[in-house]
Amino acid sequence: MLKRKPLDFKKSIRASGLDIYSPIEVGDANLWIPTPHIETLLNKALKGLNLGELPVRTRSKVVKIAICEALGYPAPKSFKRTKPRFFGQQLDTYAQKSRNLQIWNEQLSPARRYAIIQISAENRVLKVKVVNGYALGLLDKTGKITTKYQAALEVRAASHELVSTQDATLLLPHVHASAGFDKAVSPVNDPVSGKLLPIQEVYKRLSTLVGQTFADPGKDQERNRGAALHKLICQYLGYSRYEDTGQFPDIRHQLLEVKLQTSPTIDLGLVLPSSEERLDISQLGDVHPRHCDTRYAMFFAKTDGRQVTLTHLFVTTGADFFKRFRRFEGKGINGKIQIPLPQEFFST
């Protein structure tokens, strides 16, 4: 089956006769537009759009009409106050002149997509970045998002633990122990049937990383620490290059989420590993993977400030996650979430 391009999805939407409020099954092979494709379509249609001195409400409507056209939908005469606004694609939009993103009266949803539209001082659209709620949750360094999940990591005597001896049943027809990838394959591509390594093979390939060290970029550089580990994992799994889009799971091609722990508190963000909600990815063969089908590779490490040493490895499915790691109970929901977008947000 040929890989569908962004315009293929736009044409399918246009031919379907659906409007932006018509529900679409997450991962539908013809109508659910993958997140990277939404970003491509929106940038092609919106970049350079001149919003002039339009009032805020008029500007918002102009942008939403442009988004309808970009995705292949007819623009309604008036837009309903649905959550999210583009209900069928589970897409919300935010036009930003500043880097202070504000979300009112609702929590972030891991499966929802958020189109963040960068507006210049001259009121022109510069760029559109589309991320899911999980990726946005990772950007909150203020602790203002109170719906994040956490768990406790208890280190035991064994340095290697394969918590789940088998993948989720629905993944089994799509795994292959000797799956290989050519140089063109990116670790952030959507998974492909027959190219998923079994969880036992993931465990085997990553086990040799225990005991290895890498330079510590500093205690306030958790993202760079994680990136260093992420690069090693891509290499040991057999990829010729490293890429990271900040989306969940980290290595989408293997349905693998990567975690580096130097403390016993595991931050899970907005994703409950045992959730049966569908992932924001295309279908895998004839099935759609869920959060609980995701595989987790978690390393515990120690640092002396100069070198990080990997001391323990845990590999588990999301479904089995809380069989090994104790969940902390969550708290309430904030009325307003404020997320300071990093300087490089629109450039990555």
Characterise the protein shown here.
This protein has helices spanning 6-16, 35-46, 56-71, 133-138, 199-207, 222-237, 321-324; strands at 91-96, 100-104, 113-119, 125-132, 149-152, 160-162, 213-215, 256-261, 265-269, 295-303, 307-317, 326-328, 336-340. The chain has 7 helices and 13 strands. α1 crosses α2 (35-46) and α2 packs across α3. The radius of gyration is 21 Å and the shape is globular. Strands 6, 7, 8, 10 and 11 form a 5-stranded mixed beta sheet that branches. The chain is of the alpha/beta class and 348 residues long. A hairpin with a 5-residue loop joins β3 (113-119) and β4 (125-132). The chain has 2 domains: 6-146 and 333-347, no CATH class; 149-328, no CATH class. Helices cover 21% and strands 22% of the residues.
Q: Gyration radius, to the nearest Å? A: 21 Å
Overall structural class, as computed from helix and strand content, comes to alpha/beta
Helical content stands at 10-25%
> What's the structural domain tally?
2
Oligomeric state of the chains present here: single chain
* Principal-axes shape call: globular
Secondary-structure element series: HHHEEEEHEEHEHEEEEHEE
- Give the mean pLDDT: 88
First-last Cα distance = 30 Å
Total helical segments? 7
By DSSP, the count of extended strands is 13
Q: How much strand? A: 15-25%
Q: Main sheet?
A: 5 strands, mixed
Low-confidence stretches: 331-335
